[in-house]
Specification:
Layout (H helix, E strand, L loop, with lengths): L10 E5 L4 H12 L3 E6 L2 H10 L7 E5 L5 H7 L7 E4 L14 H24 L10 E6 L3 H4 L5 H21 L4 E8 L5 H4 L3 H10 L8 H12 L10 E4 L6
Parallel strand pairs: 1-2, 1-4, 2-3, 4-5, 5-6, 6-7
The structure holds 1,4-dihydronicotinamide adenine dinucleotide.
């Protein structure tokens, strides 16, 4: 095992796990001995994930699932039994309020907010969390934008603020059933999502980060590992910002 954490015997579901932050979370849990299932809608990146992580082939399962589609989630949830769910899938469609279309708005809400509801509900409805597991975990990927807002991201900020509200609600509802539910709020992380931004915007964002660098996918994956560990069993209903001091 190649990790300071030990998740052998644990089953993890990562949505949007085929690239970016989700890929790193998948890799990190595999390195810590876990069995990981990835739900992602992109077949090409799923194939790439399988190739890149072929050394873990026996512990990695992949399914093409669209989190915006409750039927797709319910069908995929027919198999598997999980200790930990990482709701990570997300998209952006950035535009100022004046330019944002109704489609831009609903696509982002459907993926980044309703998607988390669809996935989590499909697992709960079908009793797919291990009854015997005393440390069940749900980690929802939010964003500092959900706490502070951001120019050009009405849709994304609304969805991520909704994720934070839903996280706190689930923490209250599911605590007695052996779950903790927390949100991670990344700042500015280097992934295909942010690489799509113009160079000058990237530079001006980095200038605002106290530690003067973009975050890495490892910065986020390590926090997910900690929140999933037995040591974090009294952290519930909180939002952990991982932003290098962007928002102070
Ligand atoms: P990414 O674009 O690199 O990866 C997102 C993954 O989600 C992709 O594999 C994509 O295929 C999958 N996905 C998207 N829509 C889906 C759907 N409907 N069904 C199934 N899978 C779907 O994005 P990145 O940067 O890795 O972001 C991951 C999460 O972290 C997202 O929730 C994002 O909002 C959040 N985040 C990212 C930040 C960043 O700076 N990169 C900052 C704050 C939050």
């Amino acid at each position: 095992m190649n990790s300071k954490f030990n998740f052998s015997e644990k089953n993890i579901l990562v949505t949007g796990g085929a690239q970016g932050i989700g890929f790193e979370i998948t890799k990190s849990f595999l390195a810590a001995g876990a069995n990981v299932t990835v739900w992602d809608y992109n077949l090409e990146t799923l194939d790439n994930l399988k190739k890149e992580l072929s050394v873990y082939a026996e512990k990695l399962a992949c399914a093409q699932v669209d989190v915006t589609d409750a039927k797709s989630c319910n069908a995929a949830a027919k198999s598997g039994e999980f200790d930990i769910l990482i709701n990570n899938a997300g998209i952006t469609r950035d535009k100022s309020l004046a330019k944002m279309t109704y489609e831009d708005f609903t696509q982002v809400i459907n993926t980044n907010l309703t998607g988390l509801f669809n996935v989590t509900k499909s697992l709960l409805d079908q009793n797919r969390f291990k009854e015997s597991s005393s440390n069940k975990r749900i980690i929802n990927m939010a964003s500092v934008v959900g706490l502070y807002g951001n120019f050009g991201q009405s849709n994304y900020a609304a969805a991520k603020a909704g994720v934070i509200g839903m996280t706190k609600t689930w923490a209250k509802e599911l605590g007695r059933k052996g779950f903790t539910v927390n949100a991670v709020a990344p700042g500015f992380i280097s992934t295909p999502m942010t690489q799509a931004m113009p160079e000058d915007v990237l530079k001006s964002m980095v200038d605002k980060v106290a530690v003067k660098r973009m975050g890495t996918t490892q910065d986020i994956a390590q926090v997910c590992l900690f929140l999933s560990s037995d040591e974090a069993s009294y952290i519930n209903g909180t939002v952990i910002s991982v932003d290098g001091g962007l928002t102070i």
